[in-house]
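Dear colleagues,

For the upcoming journal club I promised to circulate an example of a predicted protein-ligand complex. I picked one with zinc ion because it came up in last month's discussion. The inputs are reproduced below in full, followed by the predicted structure.
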Amino acid sequence: MPWLNLCTRESKIAKAEISRLKNDTDSHSSEIEEKENELDGVRKKLESLSVLLEDHELLCPECKAPLLQRHFHTIFGIAGGREMEADIEIVEYECGLVLEEGKADPSYPCKNTKQNQP
Ligand SMILES: [Zn+2]
């Protein structure tokens, strides 16, 4: 420390300087702490967001690829002697997975997971 070599008058100034620097460090560390807390909050938000995305089928259930598009396909049929019409929801993901409403198996498999490939 260069302050140690200073005379009394100057050492008072030096002490003041040191305490100023110390306060600076303190305010910096609390700033850092604040940022860390902020970051932690963002991380938690992201986690809950990805859970939300999965809940709403916005991610491929196999590889978590994002939803590409979601559309409805109208089908016609005869049921109980009457002509019926129904909208089937079709969900396509970026990885190639296509899910059709009411079907247990995907119409097209997810390309990112091997067990689904023939
Ligand atoms: Zn996938």
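Two points we might discuss: The CA atoms of residues 59 and 110 lie 12 Å apart. Helices lie at 8-55.

See you all on Thursday,
B. R.
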